[in-house]
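Retry 2 of 3 after timeout on previous attempt. Resubmitting structure tokens to design endpoint.
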């Protein structure tokens, strides 16, 4: 055999082996990347699940609280409440939605099926029953819950609302009484754009110094959960009115000052988030214009390449077709030249959006959590 041919065959074999090894290495690297991405995803999902449970607990997102929200919204709009229903297949509270007026049509539209349009399915606010066939889980994003929260929010901030935003309750187990303010912080940028909104609580002792935030959240959490308190009697409420209006006690002044300090701390914490959002919005603008610029450039290069390689075909076109093609290319060229200035204007608009941030604080509600010994003493003094 010809030595030269043997050498070429050997070279080809070695080249094939090297290529197979490279392919195997690339494949293994891809598999490793997929596995690493899967592990990162699992860690992220685990962290999100943990934070989700924590946030639910902090925000009192319980089935009982959700039911109260919907029933209160129904009551405000003169509608009947949800009706409990016995369902042996579900280990949770299941309810039937009664017949509502047309203003609630969008909220209950998905309860009935195509096969049974006149038989709305029962609902539940408990995740444990979400997988039971024939039961609809009403979560925070469900139209029924969205309608209810919009109704409550509108009534809460309306000057004509019948909602009482001040209450006093007697709570067992409290060692002293508190005045707790529920407020809303809204951060508005230049031009009136709302950048952030947050509901927060502050409080003071009726007698004494400021309240630790953890302690305050515990007190407010018990107030929000039903069954652990009772409405304060008229003598207790009268005493609280006197303390609130008294000049010497300065209860209202102390609570307003604490609310303002709390709002300032929250705004300083949100500043970092707003800077990140500003950078994210700016990067998004740059990304959009970079993609647009690349698309226009590629289209122009393709059309110019077609002109160079298909001169005969283009010569056969009608004058109107060639003129239209030239206009299109000229418009694309002009648009490409104007992109830098447009991008600069957009990034400036993003920067202005986050400038001059101004806080607005609105009082949402006032809760007096009264200890049993204080309630007993005030009732005795007013007899």
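Retry 2 succeeded. Sequence:
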């Amino acid at each position: 055999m010809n030595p030269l041919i043997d050498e070429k065959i050997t070279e080809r074999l070695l080249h094939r082996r090297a290529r197979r090894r490279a392919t195997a290495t690339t494949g293994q690297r891809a598999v490793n990347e997929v596995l690493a991405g899967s592990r990162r995803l699992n860690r992220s999902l685990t962290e999100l699940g943990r934070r989700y449970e924590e946030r639910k607990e902090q925000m009192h997102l319980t089935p009982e609280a959700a039911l109260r929200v919907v029933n209160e919204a129904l009551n405000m709009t003169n509608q009947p409440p949800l009706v409990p229903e016995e369902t042996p297949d579900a280990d949770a509270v299941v309810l039937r939605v009664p017949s509502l007026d047309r203003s609630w049509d969008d909220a209950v539209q998905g309860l009935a099926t195509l096969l049974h349009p006149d038989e709305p399915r029962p609902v539940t606010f408990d995740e444990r029953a979400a997988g039971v066939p024939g039961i609809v889980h009403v979560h925070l994003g469900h139209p029924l819950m969205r309608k209810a929260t919009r109704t409550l929010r509108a009534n809460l901030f309306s000057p004509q609302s019948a909602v009482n935003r001040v209450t006093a309750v007697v709570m067992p187990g409290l060692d002293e009484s508190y005045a707790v303010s529920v407020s809303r912080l809204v951060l508005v940028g230049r031009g009136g754009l709302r950048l952030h909104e947050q509901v927060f609580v502050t409080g003071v002792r009726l007698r004494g110094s400021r309240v630790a935030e953890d302690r305050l959240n515990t007190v407010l959490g018990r107030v929000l959960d039903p069954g652990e308190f009772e409405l304060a009697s008229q003598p207790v409420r009268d005493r609280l009115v006197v303390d609130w209006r008294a000049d010497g006690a300065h209860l209202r002044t102390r609570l307003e000052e604490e609310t303002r300090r709390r709002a300032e701390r929250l705004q300083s914490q949100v500043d970092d988030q707003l800077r990140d959002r500003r950078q994210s919005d700016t990067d998004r603008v740059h990304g959009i214009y970079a993609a647009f610029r690349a698309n226009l450039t590629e289209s122009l290069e393709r059309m110019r390449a077609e002109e160079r390689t298909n001169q005969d075909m283009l010569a056969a076109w009608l004058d109107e077709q060639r003129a239209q093609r030239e206009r299109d290319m000229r418009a694309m060229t002009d648009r490409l030249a104007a992109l830098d200035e447009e991008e600069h204007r957009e990034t400036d608009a993003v920067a202005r959006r986050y400038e001059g941030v101004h806080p607005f604080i609105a009082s949402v509600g006032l809760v007096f959590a009264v200890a049993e010994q204080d309630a007993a003493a005030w009732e005795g003094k007013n007899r």
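Attempt log closed. The chain has a mean pLDDT of 81.
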